[in-house]
Amino acid sequence: MEKYKSFLILVIVIILIIFGVNMLNNAKEKEENSSNSNKYQIIGYWQNYVDKENSKPLKLKEVSSLYNVINIAFARASSEKSGEITFELNKYLCETINYSKEEFKSDIKKLQKENKKVFISIGGSDGGEFRITKETEANNFVNSLKKIIDEYGFDGIDIDIETGNIEKSYFEKALFDIYNAYNKNILISINSSLTDMKSADINSGVDNFWYKISADLKDIVWLVSSRYYNSGTQRRI
């Protein structure tokens, strides 16, 4: 009887050991998979307009699953209130692909459930004349951007402002206000021309405005990137 009990205990111990090893292996595999999935980010811009010559208009849910981050291009400068930005789905795009605001919002949620991030990108080459040169304009920027984020549930903002008049200190404060308004749970990326991203130590008369802002906001900016087109014969940063 004692031998039987000892044998039974030994079997139970072996089973528990095997079970524990399997759990550790599974946990390790999940961790490795998670690490690999977050190792690289494939980021692209979803066009909120129809470009017949160069691309096929798509609904958000039709974007390739390879993309981790989709930037919605673009939120524009308001023509009514200085500093304010606006965003709405392009009417012609919606008519072309039969797309409604409700379906667009639903697609954002669908992508987020698939662990994708959806950003609102601000600016673009024809995004209007952005003006943030004083506190009231900075406040208009912040308040209007918060309304857009709240309405659509965006995960982050992509700064791609190419035209206008921006005073660095007011703009930086505005981004800090946005970041803190969402308890640091909003992602911020900055995209600029290559010349604007030249660092101060190699600056030779070029305007490195966005480099300076990116450096000042290094604690809250998630990603910084440069456009390698429209930059002349630049070869390095």
Kindly describe this structure.
It contains six helices and nine strands, in the order H-E-E-E-H-H-E-E-H-E-E-H-E-H-E. The chain is α/β, with parallel strands linked by helices. The chain has two domains: 1-39; 41-227, Glycosidases (TIM Barrel, Alpha-Beta Barrel). Strands 1, 2, 3, 4, 6, 8 and 9 form a seven-stranded mixed sheet that branches. It has a two-stranded parallel sheet with strand order 5-7. Helix 4 runs parallel beside helix 5 (168-181). It is globular and about 40 Å long. Residues 30-37 have low confidence and may be disordered.
Keywords:
single chain, 237 residues, alpha/beta, TIM Barrel, 2 domains, two-stranded parallel sheet, 9 strands, 41% helix
Oligomer state equals: single chain
Proportion in helices = 40-55%
Q: Give a short account of the largest sheet.
A: 7 strands, mixed
Q: Could you name the CATH class of the largest domain? A: Alpha Beta
Distance between the termini: 79 Å
- Give the C-alpha Rg: 24 Å
Low-confidence stretches: 30-37
CATH architecture annotation of the largest domain: Alpha-Beta Barrel
Mean pLDDT, to the nearest integer, reads: 83
Encode the helix/strand succession as letters.
Answer: HEEEHHEEHEEHEHE
The SS-based structural class is alpha/beta
How many discrete domains?
A: 2
Annotated CATH topology of the largest domain: TIM Barrel
CATH homologous superfamily annotation of the largest domain: Glycosidases
Question: What's the tally of helices?
Answer: 6
β-strand percent reads 15-25%
